[in-house]
């Protein structure tokens, strides 16, 4: 009798492609064959591979790899949306990051993708009321990847974080679907208030490197935030904001800024890089 996991793998085009890429990588670079086998080829499904990879990266003297792997396996087994989101994130990175040429790259090498998947497991724990375990994963993600996402934050699917260094997403922040952001982005608060205090980022938003979005404000769907901007007020949908403090400088320039990744501002004084 064929195991259910094997049947799933046979009809899963994303996982099939990942396995094929891993096999080709082994042939091209035999010295990394052990890593390709242990992280990809040894596993029958993407869920199992992700659980193994996250446990390997986040384990420490305080929490063993085996325990973390069991936690991740439990999360993926009880919440199918986690795997759906992981696939959407993977495709987003592949389609939007010009440095990504294979599906195996985000799983093996890109800390933005890995950190988001670890956050998703931590968020699942948070919703189960297992807050201390969720905090532990948040801590390890921050220590290992340099990305600090509170486990209570709500993050949609199809997320691409390029370079992914010094990302901060606060407790009450909400990030929509198909959002792209670059390094050193902060979605933070403006004081010591305990209530809803963090930004709400709409769908299809592009956030440039070093941008700071502060307070319980709304960034409308399909808008662009220029690099280095400090956003303190609501951003209308399909618009571009820039500056300190940020102001509307024009339209977004395209239907899906987060997908096109166009970071040039077409201002009257000439193009200006985000």
Automatic annotation (TrEMBL):
* Location of the Serine acetyltransferase N-terminal domain: 14-118
Q: Which biological pathway? A: Amino-acid biosynthesis; L-cysteine biosynthesis; L-cysteine from L-serine: step 1/2
Give the source's domain of life in one word.
Answer: Bacteria
By sequence similarity, the record places it as follows:
Belongs to the transferase hexapeptide repeat family.
Q: Indicate the enzyme's highest-level EC class.
A: transferase
State which Enzyme Commission number(s) the record gives.
2.3.1.30
Q: Name one GO biological process term.
A: cysteine biosynthetic process from serine
Q: What is this protein called?
A: Serine acetyltransferase
Q: Which reaction does it catalyse?
A: L-serine + acetyl-CoA = O-acetyl-L-serine + CoA
One GO MF annotation is: serine O-acetyltransferase activity
Q: Which SUPFAM superfamilies match?
A: Trimeric LpxA-like enzymes
* One Pfam family hit: SATase_N
């Amino acid at each position: 009798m064929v195991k259910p996991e094997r049947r799933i793998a046979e009809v899963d085009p994303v996982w099939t492609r990942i396995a094929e890429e891993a096999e080709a990588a082994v042939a091209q670079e035999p010295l990394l064959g052990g890593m390709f086998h242990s992280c990809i080829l040894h596993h029958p499904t993407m869920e199992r591979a992700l659980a193994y990879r996250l446990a390997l990266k986040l384990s420490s003297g305080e929490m063993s790899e085996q325990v973390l792997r069991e936690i991740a396996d439990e999360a993926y087994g009880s919440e199918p949306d986690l795997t759906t989101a992981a696939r959407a994130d993977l495709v987003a990175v592949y389609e939007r990051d010009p440095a990504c040429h294979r599906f195996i790259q985000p799983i093996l090498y890109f800390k933005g993708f890995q950190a988001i998947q670890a956050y998703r497991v931590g968020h699942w724990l948070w919703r189960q009321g297992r807050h201390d375990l969720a905090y532990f994963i948040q801590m390890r993600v921050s220590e290992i990847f340099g990305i600090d996402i509170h486990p209570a934050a709500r993050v949609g699917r199809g997320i691409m974080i390029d370079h992914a260094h010094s990302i901060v997403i606060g407790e009450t922040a909400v990030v929509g679907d198909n959002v792209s952001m670059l390094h050193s982005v902060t979605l933070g608060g403006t004081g010591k208030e305990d209530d809803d205090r963090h930004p709400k980022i709409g769908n299809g938003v592009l956030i440039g490197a070093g941008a700071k979005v502060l307070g319980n404000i709304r960034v409308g769907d399909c808008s662009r935030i220029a690099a280095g901007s400090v956003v303190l007020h609501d951003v209308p949908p399909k618009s571009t904001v820039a500056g300190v403090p940020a102001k509307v400088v024009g339209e977004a320039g395209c239907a899906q800024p987060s997908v096109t990744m166009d970071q040039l501002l077409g201002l009257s004084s000439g193009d200006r890089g985000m």
